[in-house]
Amino acid sequence: MSATGLTALSSSVPVRPASLPCPAASLTAFRIMCDHYVEVKVQLEQMKSLGEDAEKQGVDTEQVPVSSVSPDPSSITLAGRDASNTSITCKHRGKSHSKSGKDDKNLCGKHISGVSVSTHVGKNLNRLEHEQTLHIKGTGRILQGKSETNGNYVTIHPSKNIQETRREDGYNLARKRKPVTVDSSKAKTSLEALKLSIKQLKWKEFPLGRRTACDIYWHGVSFHDNEHIVSGQVNKFPGMIEMLRKINLSRAVRTMQELFPEEYDFYPRSWILPEEFQQFSTQICMVKENDATVNPTFIVKPDGGSQGDGIYLIRDPSDLKLMAGSQAKQAVVQEYIQKPLLVDKLKFDIRLYVLIKSLEPLEIYIAKEGLTRFCTEPYQEPCQKNLSHVFMHLTNYSLNVHSGNFVHSDSQNTGSKRTLSSVLYRLAAKGVDIKKVWSDIIALVIKTVIAVVPELKVYYQADIPPGKPGPTCFQILGFDILLMKNLKPVLLEVNSNPSMRIEHEQEVAPGVFGYVPSPVDEEVKVGVIRDTLRLMDPRHRKPSISSQLRAGGFEHGEAIPVEGETRERNPDEGGALPSLCLKPVYPKYTKQFNYLRLAERIAALFIRFLGVKGNMRLGPTAFRTFIRTCKLSNSNFTMASVDILYIDITRRWSGAVPDSREAGMGLQAFVEAFFYLAGRRFKSLVLREQVVSLLELCEAQLEAQLGIEDRRSLSCSRALPRAIKTQTLSLNPLLSSPAPLRRAASQDYRLHQRLNPRTLRANVEN
Known about the structure:
CATH superfamily of the domain at 240-268 and 337-539 and 579-586: ATP-grasp fold, B domain
Distance between the termini: 97 Å
Structural class: alpha+beta
Largest sheet: 8 strands, antiparallel
Shape: globular
CATH architecture of the domain at 240-268 and 337-539 and 579-586: 2-Layer Sandwich
Strand content: 15-25%
Oligomer: single chain
Radius of gyration: 37 Å
Mean pLDDT: 76
CATH topology of the domain at 240-268 and 337-539 and 579-586: D-amino Acid Aminotransferase, Chain A, domain 1
Low-confidence stretches: 1-21, 54-160, 543-558, 562-569, 723-766
Number of helices: 24
C-alpha cells in the first residue's frame, strides 16, 4: 500500500487512545497473520501427507510436533480424532473492539487455499474471547490451540475420540434421566421390603397407583391383579399360580421323568388324587407283600394348599381323606423322606429365591443367600405314634411359629429361622463339600424351571398373544428344598408367591400380638427384591442373546462352578449399591442343560397349531391339521384312527382336569398323544429317542412347508404393484416389520435352531 493510501486510511479513522495499536501496526499484524496462515497451510499439508504415509506403514501418528505459527517459537501438538475435519482453535483476548480485531475476524472467516476458519464468540462480551477454529478438509484430524495475549505460543491440545465423547455424553444424559417409576398399589405383604428397595435405588414409588403408565408394576398375588396394563413390566407371569399347584407341578416333572429318569430323580415319587388312588393303593400293597418289614410313610399335600395347611402323614392308603363334604379332594401324595440332614438334632429345609427374568430367551437367576426354616421339636423317624407331630416333621414357618419352642433371633446363626450361609458354614466346618451341594441345588433349580416352562408359554400366549400390546413379565419364585442325610437335595415344592414379609408376629404384651422387624428376613428378602429391580431396570440396555450364550456354558456332565470366580456385572452405574446377590445360572450353563428342553419343542408345535389367539386347547380340526402337515398318517394309521386317538385322550384328560377353561386337548394331553405317535412310528427306540426322532421329522416338514410358502409369496409379489406388494409381504409373519410379530412367528424355528437335534442326539448317546 502507498504512503498516500496510508495517509488516507489514517485520516478516515477516529483518534484512538495511546494504548491501542495504530492502523499501521494493524496492517503489519494483518500481513504477519496472512504469512502465518500460509505457513500453517503448508505445514498441515505436509503433516497430512506424513500421516497418510505413516498410516500406510502402520506408524502411530498420535502426536507429531510441528513448527511455530507465530513470530516467536511455539509448539503445536497434533492429536488423532475420528473426525472428517481438522481444526485449530485460537483465542484472542482484548479489552475493547478494534478495527484490527475486526480485520482479524474477517480474515478468519475467509477461505484461504482450502482452509476455512470459523469464529465462535464467547458469552462474556467484556472478556471478548473469540474462539477461532481452523478446519482442514480431508485430513481426518483436528488441531486445537489457544493464542495468548502475548502472542508467544499456540498450544494445541489432543482431542478425544468422537465415539468416546458420545459415550460420555450418553452416560451423563442417562444419569439425568427421570427415576424409574414403580406401582406398588398391589404389593400387599411384600410392600415394606419393596419400599426399602425403592428407597435404596432412589426410584419413585406410586403407592396408590398412577393414571399414566409406570415402568414396573409389583403385584402381590398374580398377573391379573391389574387387568389394564398394556406396557411396562409386571412381576408375575400369567399362569404361574396354576402351573405351580401341587398337581400340575407333579405332572410336569413326571413328564420329564419319563424322558430323563436319572436327571429328575430329585423329586419324590408322587400320585395324584383322587384319579390315581387305585394305582397308589395297589402299589403300596405290592410293596408290603414283597417285604413285610417295609412300612413306608407318605405325606399328603392339598393341591391348592399353602403355609402347611391340610398337610398330614399316612402309612396306609386307608388313612387318606379323599372327601371334603360331597366333593373329592384334589391332592398329591408323595413318598416321605425319612432320613433328612439334621442340624442341632432338628429337621430343616431351605427356602431359595429364584428369579425368572425372561421366558424367551430363558433367563434364570438364583439368590446367593436364602433362608433355613427349622422344626421346633427334635426329629425322630416317623412311626405310628408320632405321625401327627407336625412340629417334628413339617418345616413350614407358619406352623412352627405357633410352637412354644420357636425362637425369634436377631442373629443370622441361631434361632428357628437362619440364613442359608450360616448353615452351610457349619456344614463346611464338619468337612462337607459345600461346592458340590451348591452345584446340585443349581442343577435342581434349572431342571425344575425347564419342566414348567412349556406350560407357562401356553399361558403366556393366551394372555398376551403375539401382536397384542401388553407388558413383559418376570417373577420371583420360592423353592423349598430338603437336604437328605447323604446331602442330596430333594425338591419339596415351588411357591409362586413366596412370602416377602420382613416382619414376624410376636407377643408384644400379655395376650397382645403384633408385627416386629425380623433382621434375618430383611437381610435376605430386601436384597432379592432390590436386585431384581436392578436387573429389570428399563434404563439398562439388555444384552443380546448371542453375547449371553458366548458368556459361558459347560458341556453335559461337567461340574458347575458355584463360587464367584467371575464377578457379575453390577447394573448400577453409580456403584453405591452392593454387588448383585442374584447369580445368573441360565443361559450361562445352557450347554449343560439344553438337551433337556424336549418338552419345550413339543409345546412349540402345540402353540403353532392352536390357531385362534388366546386359545389354550387344541380342537379336533387343529389336531388333524397337525397330523396332515407333519405327514404322520399312512395306510396303517388313517385319519379315522387320528380322530379316535383325539377323542380317547381328550375325554380322559377332561375328567382329570374338571376346572379346565375350555374344551379340547391341552398341552399335557398333546404331550401324551405325541409320545404315543412317537412310539408307534419308531418302535425299536427308547422313548427319549422316539420323541427326538419324531420332533426332527415334524420340524423338518414344517420348515419345508414354510420355505414353499415363502417362495410362493415371493413369486406372487413380483407380479403385484408396489403398494399391494408391500401389503402382501407384511402378511408373512417372518417378513413383518413389528418385532413382536416377527419373534412370535419365528419362535418354533429359532427354538429348533437353538436346540440342535444333532447336539441332542449326541447327548442322548452319551
